[in-house]
Design a protein that fits this description.
single chain; 449 residues; alpha/beta; Rossmann fold; Dihydrodipicolinate Reductase, domain 2; nine-stranded mixed beta sheet; six-stranded parallel beta sheet; 13 helices; globular
Length: 449
């Protein structure tokens, strides 16, 4: 968050405090203030999934200006709930309910909003279950586990007319919005190419061993829509990202979602006409990581526009001077943009403008959150109320996520893909198109659209 935005938050909070002071003369307790002020547009919020993204929700829920009530904390692992409640103590002065069963949470008619921070395979099913019960949804990236789920979410959002927003939080960063607007207005001429990248130093992971689920984990609930299988150590705690395709979407779904979203936004492209990938597991050959850990992907669009993805999960060489970001090339110059701001460079290579944010949400550190997430979630809350336009609709999130799925499908099949530029469907390979959806546990198939 920029200094000016944070000052605005502080001013609004101060104004709200004055209102509290006035109510004090009527002998209301601080807890009562929170139930009275702006009650007509207060949102009752439930969070499902209390892992590494939990820190992203403290501030936007804790801000008095958000005018929300945290009604539920929910997780398939019992121990996550009291830990999350402890984390919220410095932000709120009341205790949310702790409920392991997400269906009980969604069936509570008092819940207005679901924040869906579950593992990837739960993102779309958790969202459509919430939509069917009349909830608005903030869903973490990627918004789907496979391409079909993205199509379902877009259709159901329209059917139920609820606000659905993916956690592509850089769409709410003031510096990113500023430079993308300038790109669209021609500051670097005609844009034609973007390089999106990510470098991390993830280490070796344990070889999974079949064992009983850990105490407190509802393994059946964790699996949710995925076909049932025995528990393997240490699946539930983040390693589900790397242990096969039942739950995760590999590093491309996990992180490329962000930078590919910025690249697509800058180039103003939607569905690709061709996708080609080179990928493999290049590090720690004997460990339990079953996905690729290195990928180069190329997406070709109409008008000669191209996006490339350079993803290195376990080689932290900062090829482009940073661990993550996007470089946009135009006929008259270049823009480097990441979570920390942007640099505008003319065609001769001279930097002509820079705007670096004073924020705390850069890099590849696990979990957390920060200023961009706060802005994005507050934007979602206000969009639910109808007082703000969404910075990114679920249509935008689903298309950016589709690029990740197409790269994964190309990697899994070993085929370059020819796609329908109107919807992204794969035209040249029945084998690849078979991965457009997935096998579901009985009773969990997506609703018909």
């Amino acid at each position: 968050m920029s200094k000016s935005n944070r000052r605005t938050f502080i001013k609004k909070s101060a104004a709200l405090t004055l209102g509290f002071s006035a109510l004090g003369s009527l002998s209301f307790s601080p807890k009562s203030y929170a139930r009275i002020v702006g009650a007509n547009d207060r949102l009752n919020v439930a969070i499902a999934g209390l892992g590494r993204r939990l820190g992203a929700f403290y501030e936007p829920i804790g801000l008095k200006t958000s005018n929300v009530n945290l009604l539920y904390l929910c997780d398939a692992m019992q121990s996550q709930m009291p830990k999350a409640a402890k984390g919220f103590e410095k932000w709120i002065d009341y205790q949310p309910k702790q409920e392991q069963n997400i269906f009980k949470v969604l069936d509570d008619k008092e819940v207005d909003v679901l924040i869906n921070a579950t593992p990837d395979h739960w993102h779309a099913p958790g969202t459509w279950l919430a939509l069917e019960r009349g909830k608005h949804v903030y869903v973490e990236k990627p918004c789907s586990h496979n391409p079909r789920e993205g199509e379902v979410l877009v259709a159901l959002q329209k059917k139920y007319n609820k606000v659905v927003q993916m956690g592509n939080q850089q769409r709410s960063a003031p510096e990113s919005k500023e430079i993308i607007k300038a790109i669209h207005e021609g500051v670097i001429g005609k844009v034609y190419f973007a390089k999106a990248f990510y470098s991390n130093s993830r280490g070796s992971v344990i070889n999974p061993i079949q064992q009983a689920p850990p105490a407190g984990l509802d393994w059946d609930l964790f699996q949710g829509p995925a076909p049932r299988k025995p528990y393997f150590h240490d699946t539930w705690d983040y390693n589900w990202h790397w242990y096969g395709w039942d739950y995760g979407t590999a590093e491309t779904g996990n992180n490329a979602t962000h930078e590919l979203d910025i690249a697509r936004w800058a180039l103003q492209v939607e569905f690709p006409k061709a996708v080609s990938v080179v990928a493999g597991k290049m590090h720690f050959p004997g460990d339990g990581w079953t996905m690729y850990d290195t990928m180069d992907a190329t997406f070709e669009f109409g008008e000669g526009k191209v996006i490339q993805w350079d993803g290195k999960s376990r080689n932290n060489y900062k090829t482009y001077g940073s661990d993550r970001g996007t470089i946009i090339y135009g006929s008259e110059g270049t823009v480097y943009v990441d979570r920390g701001g942007y640099r505008l460079i003319d065609r001769s290579g001279k930097e002509i403008k820079s705007n670096q944010a004073n924020n705390n949400e850069g890099g590849t550190a696990l979990g957390g959150g920060g200023d961009m997430s706060t802005l994005h979630i507050v934007n979602f809350f206000n969009a639910v109320r109808g007082t703000e336009k969404q910075n990114s609709t679920i249509e935008e999130g689903a298309v950016s996520t589709l690029l990740c799925h197409l790269a994964n499908i190309s990697s899994r099949t070993g085929e370059s893909l020819t796609c329908d530029p109107s919807n992204g469907h794969i035209l040249n390979s029945p084998k690849a198109m078979a991965l457009w959806s997935r096998a579901y546990e009985k009773g969990w198939a997506p609703p018909a659209i």
